[in-house]
Amino acid sequence: MQAAHPPSTAGAWLYRHPKALLVLFLLPPLLWLGVVYLGSLFALLAQSFFSIDEFSGTINRELTLKTYRELFSAANLDVILRTVLMAATVTVAAAIIAFPIAWFAARYARGWLRALFYIGIMLPLWSSYLVRVYAWKLILAKEGILNWVLAKLHLTWLLEALLSTPVLGGASLSVSYFGTFLVFTYIWLPFMILPIQASLERIPASVLEASGDLGAHPGHTLRHVVLPLALPGVVAGSIFTFSLTLGDYIIPGIIGSSRPFIGEVVNLHQGTAGNIPMAAAFSVVPVVVMFIYLALARRAGAFNAL
Amino acid sequence: MRSRKERVSLSLAASATAGLLFLLVPLGLILLYAFTTEDKTYQFPPPGYTLEWFGVAWGREDIRSAIALSVRVALVSTAIAMVLGTLAAAAMYRFRFFGRESITLLIILPIALPGIVTGISLRSAFNIMDIPFSFWTIVLGHATFCIVVVYNNVIARFRRTSHSLIEASLDLGANGWQTFLHVVLPNIATALLVGGLLAFALSFDEVIVTTFTAGQQTTLPIWMLSELVRPRQRPVTNVVAVFVIAVTFIPILLAYFLTRDTSDVNGSGK
Amino acid sequence: MFDHVSLRFGDVAAVDNVSLEIADGEFFSLLGPSGSGKTTSLRLIAGFEQPDAGEILLHGVPASGLPPYQRDVNTVFQDYALFPHMSVRDNVAYSLMIRKVPRAERRRRAEEMLDRVRLGGMADRRPAALSGGQRQRVSLARALINQPRILLLDEPLGALDLKLREQMQEELKGLQQDLGITFIYVTHDQQEALTMSDRIAVFDHGRLQQVGAPREIYDHPANAFVANFVGVSNLLDAATSHTLFGIDGATAVRPESIRIEAPARDDAVRIETVVESIVFQGQNSRLVLACDGARLSALFDHNADRETASPETGKPLAVWILREDVHRLGEGG
Using 50, 70 and 90 to split pLDDT, how confident is the model at C144? Predict the structure, then answer.
């Protein structure tokens, strides 16, 4: 028999007021995210409505749309378009490369093979971003492994053909768009694999057997059953690849052409140029793009696959 | 029992293998280059192999202090994230309330928005409020995006924990605190640990947000970045890169063995 | 015990103005389909939910505001809710540990309790290593070790197969009689409720439909819902009831009350029907008979009714119903 406590203990009070318990749980994380994070986002937004005095270089804390007018100059629109295009291309490429890996890992990898795939996906995901970018600096260097392999295979002409392509090419891979694209795809690939793998693992084997049983060719099963069911995973993964590419300023700075991406411009404005309002206005762009993207993704049911 | 073994098509196996190689070969190369005798270029194959760079790197004071700072930041950020992430997960598991979806969104926002946005936002806020850069400005940023990692792991475990376990404990005379101690904590312990390990790994590597919140302080990733932009001593950078991979490899392996039987998909919320 | 208790979830009244009293030492069942409010009523007693209106009295004391851990009530959960990280012994001794009973006594009492539910020797196992029936017993031992005055059981046998379920029914009933404590038993299985209970409360859509002894509920269903949920009934609308029996208002007749042979009494109503279909069910066959715009379900017993010519599909068949087997139904349900 439980002791007949007087029902006036703190626990009993919380029992009668379950909402108070909820507040107790939720308040600390909400305070942190609300104040530190949302607060900062608003600070950013506020800064974007300030302007910079062109002569003194000081920040004028009066609300104005001047910075936004400058943002939509032709050169800046060029930067935005270039970045969004890169993000989209990287996302598509990552999805194409990720799918077979995720499919294999989810369906066929057992025992030691499963462990290998887990490590193979997790290690790149969690190991240092910089180290992985650095790895590509080693690979793409003129004296590096890629040129060595191509030379051994007598395929150097292929690389030269690629490099002489207008826009994509350049003096060498490490200063070309193609190089930037390659590194982006490599770096964000694990973010695409995991959600796809998770959504594929949720497809019951019986569904695939049913499709085969009903006479569907494996190709048909893939197109009409697997892909639609994996779509939320693909969309969830694309949130990462898209967002991460939009905001990155390190990769294009280390491997890529001199034409800048959004992140680099933001970094430039806030750093050497000291134009914080412009940096703020520029970083509102990926936020807006991402909110549009998230709204679309939510409709595709991607949040449940995160 | 499966009467017929599932057959893997050759093209699937080939493309999965190629993809896995694409993921792993660059990391292998990092390991290889740490032993090269060539110190001016990234020549492949390396002309010779040596261990001398490990000793050189070990003796560098700037690297040591960068590592120390990174470890301290990661420890404090992880601790904060573990408390806040667990609280948020508990609230989301226990209650159905108005605005629940918005809170999910708020929690994943720090990783859904580009890192540069988080970074420059924090910098603007510090700027407006005249907060000088310090150890704590770095921690503030790191803890914010580490919360979601802990949250994701803990909520996944909660979802597989029957509500009736908690009710059974209350029913048997345990109050809320005793229930947390004897039933809830043991059940989420491994998920919490894994979340913490992954948060540590994430914080230890972070560079994008850190450049905006660190001021003049140098964490290990910031040291790496400066070496990448302007290489000074390539072999030392190679050795540090191997060290960083090793540091992150351990939490990943631990996380794998801790959750192997429970099939949590971790890290999907990095 | 329940005094005009209501609980709403959003727009749905999970428990709607229920009043009922359960006697000490009674085996009392809450019977109803899923979503009828029976489990919610149980959770109200345990303290997992709090009523929006009304009061719950436990042994005369208002229980509102008392958290579950301050109520002298224990629960056997539908999914057993065994703590996966503890051994069977620690599960059973959990409430003793919370009450800081010394370790040696804890151990002794837990093992005693395990012997009682015939799980001696399993104390060191983990719940995951037990079968469904064994987990059920651990859950029972854990809830009983505190000697609560009321034991709540939420569909405890739902996950077990038929054989085991029948065996456990007997054991539970025996245990309840041995201990002399009140069992409040939630089930959707009318057979189970009829077999085990002293009294049954039938729920539907959050409302109490009828309370009574099994016999009473079976023989005198209060309304159409009870008549059809507890056992099978032929429900006859007011018009048909009037034509056949001269009764105003809807009535119910059990299939087994429809006689194929003429009874040796002259107050039986004879009805001319045509056999629509016959389904063989082993000892019985189920007949569907058509008469005067109504359809009747009847049973043909292959042993008892052997003397009579076997009914054939499409052929006419005369049947008899005793007046006392015709039950007038109340409103509701």
Answer: very high
Q: Concatenated DSSP letters for C1-45? A: -EEEEEEEETTEEEEEEEEE---TT-EEEEE-STTSSHHHHHHHH
Q: B159-173 pLDDT, tens per residue?
A: 888 889 999 999 998
Q: Specify the pLDDT at position B39.
A: 75
Contacts of B174 (CB under 8 A, 6+ apart): B182, B183, C69, C94, C95, C98
Query: Could you tell me whether strands C150-154 and C73-76 are parallel, antiparallel, or unpaired per DSSP bridges?
Result: parallel
Cα–Cα distance between A81 and A225 in angstroms, integer?
35
The Cα–Cα gap between B99 and B103 comes to: 7
Concatenated DSSP letters of C183-235: EEEEES-HHHHHHH-SEEEEEETTEEEEEE-HHHHHHS-SSHHHHHHSS--EE
pLDDT at A4: 44
Residue of C327, C104, C320, C129 whose CA lies nearest to C223: C327
Provide the β-strand partners of residue C73: C150
Please identify which residue in the block is written with the tokens 């200063």.
A175
Q: In the prediction, which pLDDT does B175 show?
A: 87
Helix (H) or strand (E) holding C294, with range, is strand C294-301
Could you tell me how far CA C146 lies from the centroid of its own chain?
26
Cβ-based interface (< 8 Å): residues of C facing A: 47, 50, 65-67, 69-72, 99, 146-149
Which residues 159-198 of chain B have a CB within 8 Å of chain A?
173, 175-177, 198
Overall average pLDDT of the C251-280 stretch: 85
Do residues A259 and A75 touch, judged by C-beta distance below 8 A?
Answer: no
Per-domain residue ranges of chain B: 61-259
Please judge whether C70 and A1 are an interchain contact, meaning their C-beta atoms are less than 8 angstroms apart: no
User: Averaged in consecutive runs of 10 residues, what is the pLDDT profile of chain B (270 residues)?
Assistant: 54 87 88 81 78 81 90 95 93 82 83 84 85 91 91 88 90 89 90 88 88 87 87 84 84 76 45
**E strand or H helix that includes residue C333:** none
Does the CB of B266 have a partner CB in chain A at under 8 Å?
A: yes
pLDDT for B69:
94
Residues of B in contact with C98 (CB under 8 A): 172-174, 178, 182
**What is the average per-residue pLDDT within C278-288?**
86
Burial (Cβ within 10 Å: 0-12, 13-18, ≥19) of residue C227: buried
C312 pLDDT tier (thresholds 50, 70, 90): confident
B168 in contact with C, Cβ within 8 Å:
yes
Residues C253-258: contacts with CB within 8 Å, 24+ apart? C253/C296, C253/C321, C253/C325, C253/C326, C253/C327, C254/C325, C255/C286, C255/C296, C255/C297, C255/C298, C255/C299, C256/C299, C257/C321, C257/C322, C257/C325, C258/C234, C258/C289, C258/C296, C258/C298, C258/C299, C258/C319, C258/C320, C258/C321
Q: What is the ipTM of this complex?
A: 0.81
- Chain C residues with CB under 8 Å of A16 CB are 50, 65
Structure confidence at residue B265 (pLDDT): 41
Three-state DSSP class for A234?
helix
State which residue of chain B sits closest to C151, comparing Cα positions.
B171
In angstroms, the separation between the Cα of residue C67 and the nearest Cα of chain B is 8
CA dist., res. A151 & res. C310, Å (int): 94
For B61-259, CATH gives 1.10.3720.10
Looking at every residue in chain A, the average pLDDT score rounds to 82
